[in-house]
Amino acid sequence: MILEVAILHIKPEEMSRFEAAFPKAEAIVSSIPGYISHELQRCIETKGRYHFLIRWESVEAHMVNFRQSPKLQDFRALVGPFFAQPPVAEHFERVTASHI
Amino acid sequence: MILEVAILHIKPEEMSRFEAAFPKAEAIVSSIPGYISHELQRCIETKGRYHFLIRWESVEAHMVNFRQSPKLQDFRALVGPFFAQPPVAEHFERVTASHI
Fold first, then answer.
1. If you average pLDDT over residues A52-66, what whole number do you get?
2. Cβ–Cβ of A44/B19 closer than 8 Å?
3. CA of A53: how far to CAs of A5, A69, B3, in Å?
4. Residue A32 has pLDDT above 50, yes or no
5. Are strands B35-43 and B2-10 parallel, antiparallel or unpaired?
6. Is the ipTM of this complex over 0.90?
7. pTM of the full predicted structure?
8. A49, B18, B47, B96: which is deepest, by most CB within 10 A?
9. Beta carbons of B44 and A93 less than 8 Å apart
10. Do A42 and B100 touch (CB under 8 A)?
11. Burial of residue B55 (number of CB atoms within 10 Å: 0-12, 13-18, 19+)
12. With bands split at pLDDT 50, 70 and 90, how would you rate the model's confidence at A23?
């Protein structure tokens, strides 16, 4: 299992509309083979900053199964209009955890 | 519940020693009132980059119970020597999640 951290910068005046549109967008991600779970986190200190955390079975599940699928365009069509700048994604492997 | 995301930049040549020292450091964090759970994630793309994700009952649990406690110094004494630059921490509140 790996963790994708996608940092999203949403136009502050569009935050409500972005959050209202998110259920449809997360349903797309949840349908991808290799998807495990996700959460959307809103930064308390910086308005418009979000971390979209997605657990995948592998980096390939994200980079191939999702990003090379037509579903990426569906996802972008839903939330792309709210982005103030392009999202940045990184992948992480767990070193240690108390539980999850 | 809130999520603290601490971004750590570890000297690449010190990653093994940092990870070996981490169990003592995480035991300190786990002992703080208001602590819920944590995980340490190592970036796949950027050597030396880690996300230390900690769930707290509130921002105050982190900023007061931990950062104004003498235990912060104990924590820093254990892992501070491995830092290539000071860590950056932000707090997040959950918008939505599949489960956790």
1. 98
2. no
3. 5, 20, 12
4. yes
5. unpaired
6. yes
7. 0.95
8. B18
9. yes
10. no
11. buried
12. very high
CATH of span A2-83: 3.30.70.100
Residue A67 has pLDDT above 70, yes or no: yes
For residue B22, which residues of chain A lie inside 8 Å, CB to CB? 95-96
Instruction: Give Cβ neighbours of residue B34 (< 8 Å, ≥ 6 apart).
Output: B56, B57, B58, B60, B61, B62, B65
Average pLDDT of B24-52? Answer: 97
Domain ranges, ordered by start, for chain B: 2-85
Query: What is residue A64's predicted lDDT score, i.e. its pLDDT?
Result: 97
What's the average model confidence in pLDDT over A89-98? Answer: 96
Q: Flag whether pLDDT at B32 surpasses 60.
A: yes
Tell me the CA distances in angstroms from A78 to A27, A28, A49, A99, one per residue in order. 11, 10, 18, 33
Give the whole-angstrom CA distance, residue B100 versus residue B85.
Answer: 31
Any A CB within 8 A of B44 CB: yes
Give the pLDDT band of residue A100 (cuts 50, 70, 90): very low
- For residue B31, the one-letter residue type is S
- CATH number of B2-85, picked from 3.30.70.100, 3.20.20.30, 2.102.10.10, 1.20.1050.10: 3.30.70.100
Determine the Cα–Cα distance for residues A41 and A62; give it in Å rounded to an integer.
Answer: 19
Interface probe, candidates A9, A24, A30, A44, chain B, greatest B C-beta count within 10 A:
A44
